[in-house]
Design a protein that fits this description.
- This protein is an alpha/beta fold.
- It contains 14 helices and twelve strands.
- The strands form two sheets. Strands 1, 2, 3, 4, 5, 6 and 12 form a seven-stranded mixed beta sheet that branches. Strands 9-8-7-10-11 form a five-stranded mixed beta sheet, with helices on both faces.
- Helix 2 runs parallel beside helix 3.
- The longest helix is centred in the N-terminal third of the chain and has 26 residues.
- The relative contact order is 0.17.
Length: about 400
């Protein structure tokens, strides 16, 4: 079955679209056929940043942006189909994470909330196929944080009988899925480690008018600023025990603007070097606090996301970890660093359409396993499920 997974993350660089083929023997098998990133225009990126900031957001802005992003997601689907030379009418479903505008989990169910926009009805109508979207809210209804959601698919695809695997995504935010060797779904540990590329990218934008630090070349030229290094490491988020999640609310533009105001006399390359070090340290520190005490035996760290391309960041991370821990990337295993999350949401959507519970309560803190997402049916009536599969509704 052909499907498309869509991911637009906290880095706000564009829409990742993964065209995949999924089969279901004993368990789902997923193959990447084509991957593309539909880059946001500067105007659209600025609108999203405005919508994420309570000081500049508004109801009309979010309402209009929901529609505009819906068309952007549809265009990304068409782009990946065109690049793969695949007819749009052969797509069996689309799974869209949407664009997070606000994510604020809380112990109080009346205020625990999250909002992802990018109208899925526009995708369903445009492609004539069912769309699964809005994955986070059902987990939150079940008492979870609505994040991270990728650990369920990590468990399906990466679990090992003889080693513990730490799947570290470094997108705008860093998040890890820990799969203990020969473990079950309830044994996994998963949480947001803190900022990934978010602060680095914002500094690159403001100081160098570049979208990101390609291969970490700017950070490599800089020297760590000790006072800033100490300040960053003392952020209260890192004392919180999992399950926990974070985002632009803590480490977004407001955070970076204050950093720039406080350290305006420092060299730009030194600022980039220090926040790159911060990302690496926060990942390793999270492992020391919340992962290593709970596991034993061989450990393999598998990097994914844009940060996996940052050689300086990877080198810093390796230096902070015990020497016996092997650090590789998705590319080293024959997968794609960039496509991992979009592929994961394609698989989550596939599981939803077939009525399979697909959250990981051990990761999110939910009271129980539930089926995630809202299904927008094919508006023209054909669900396009395989002949031996019945729709769950």
């Amino acid at each position: 079955m052909l499907g498309i997974g869509l991911m637009s993350g906290t880095s706000l660089d564009g829409i990742d679209a993964a065209l995949v083929e999924i089969d279901t023997p004993a368990q789902p098998v997923i193959r990447l056929k084509q991957f593309t990133t539909a880059v946001f225009s500067q105007e659209l990126r600025q609108k999203i940043k405005q919508a994420c900031d309570p000081a500049t957001s508004s109801v009309p802005l979010i309402c209009q942006l929901n529609v505009e992003l819906g068309y952007a997601f549809l265009a990304a689907c068409r782009q990946v189909c065109q690049e793969a030379n695949v007819a749009e009418n052969t797509i069996g479903f689309v799974a869209s994470h949407g664009q997070t505008i606000w994510h604020a989990p809380s112990d109080n169910p009346l205020i625990s909330s999250t909002l992802q926009i990018g109208e899925p009805s526009i995708i369903a109508y445009g492609l004539g196929t069912p769309v699964v979207a809005d994955f986070r809210v059902m987990d939150m209804a079940a008492g979870g944080q609505g994040a991270p959601l990728v650990p369920y698919t990590d468990y399906l695809l990466y679990r090992s009988l003889d080693k513990t695997r730490l799947l570290q995504n470094i997108g705008g935010i860093g998040n890890v899925t820990v799969l203990p060797k020969n473990g079950t779904l309830s044994d996994l540990i998963a949480f947001d480690t803190g900022p990934g590329n978010m602060i680095i990218d914002e500094l690159m934008h403001q100081l160098f008018q570049l979208p990101y630090d390609a291969e970490g070349k700017i950070a490599q030229q800089g020297t760590i600023i000790p006072k800033l290094q100490r300040q960053l490491r003392n952020h209260s988020y890192f004392d919180q025990a999992p399950p926990k999640s974070t985002g632009r609310e803590l480490f977004g533009e407001v955070f970076t603007d204050q950093l720039l105001a406080d350290y305006s006399a420092e060299k730009p390359v030194d600022l980039v070097a220090t926040v790159t070090d911060f990302t690496a340290y926060s990942i390793a520190d999270s492992y020391r606090r919340f992962v290593f005490p709970k596991i034993s035996g061989p450990i393999e760290v598998i990097l994914a996301g844009g940060g996996a391309h940052n050689s300086t960041l990877k080198k810093m991370l390796v230096n902070y970890l015990p020497a016996e821990i092997k650090v590789v990337t998705q590319e080293d295993l024959g997968w794609s660093n960039d496509a991992k999350e979009a592929m994961a949401f394609a698989l989550l959507g596939y599981e939803t359409l077939h009525g399979h519970k697909n959250n990981a309560p051990a990761a999110t803190g939910a009271k129980q396993s539930v089926i995630l997402g809202k299904i927008i049916p094919n508006p023209f009536g054909d669900m396009k499920l395989p002949k031996n599969q019945a729709a769950p509704f």
